Amino acid sequence: MLRTSLLLLALITGPLLAQPEDTSSSLAGRVDGRYYVSPRGSYRIPIPVLPELGGAISDNDKVVTFQDNFNVYISIGAFAQDASQRWEMSTRGPQDYLTYFLRNFVMPDFERAFPGCHVEGIAFSPTLFNGALIAYTLLPGGSMFAGKRSFLGSALAPVVAKRGNLIFVRNGSIYVISTELAERETERSTYKKTIAEENEILRSRLVDLVRKMEFARPDTTP
């Protein structure tokens, strides 16, 4: 699972964003009208950013990142389960397995990228994809929007960024979908949400996003 860990790091830190005009030639996946289609065809999703707002797409064979200049940062990772991961899931059950994957594969990469990060809370939904985990993580200095809304941004103290991370298994792949609560960075002193309100915003955004995804059996051709 070392390669999975390295690809998760790309999901966490964000690959270098492709410029909108270069998207079609630089992607491992493809753009089909208003949809992004993953390289193996395991899913497609309406593109959640607009070029007019600085929206861009970057990907590799496992991870895609969407970001604009205002309030959208979304990463989707899809990793095929190997035999050991299938065994872990069969013996642990959905909630314990997804928690195990978070602790052993997702969080170590967060910790390397953003020292001092930690899980603020975890929620499990038994009905979403027969079991899905949402983890809320705090990332000191980890905002992907630092300095984007003001020329003074670079002089401001880094915020503690917050992301929601939705983890579930579908068609033999484990998905990790991450989105940042951009308002912590873009609104700064006017931002007054409680932890519960933040969690609900992130949960709602993640669930709305995943319900727009269309899944298929991945192409396993080498």
Describe what you observe in this structure.
Helix 1 (2-13) packs across helix 4 (94-113) and helix 3 (83-92) packs across helix 4 (94-113). With 222 residues, this protein is α+β, with helices and mostly antiparallel strands. The chain has helices at residues 2-13, 23-26, 83-92, 94-113, 183-186, 195-211, and strands spanning 30-32, 35-37, 43-46, 56-59, 63-67, 73-80, 118-125, 132-140, 160-170, 173-180, 214-215. Residues 15-22 have low confidence and may be disordered. The protein has one domain (2-215): 3-Layer(aba) Sandwich (Protein Transport Mog1p, Chain A). The chain has six helices and eleven strands. The radius of gyration is 17 Å and the shape is globular. Strands 4-5-6-10-9-8-7 form a seven-stranded antiparallel β-sheet, sandwiched between helices. The two termini are 18 Å apart.
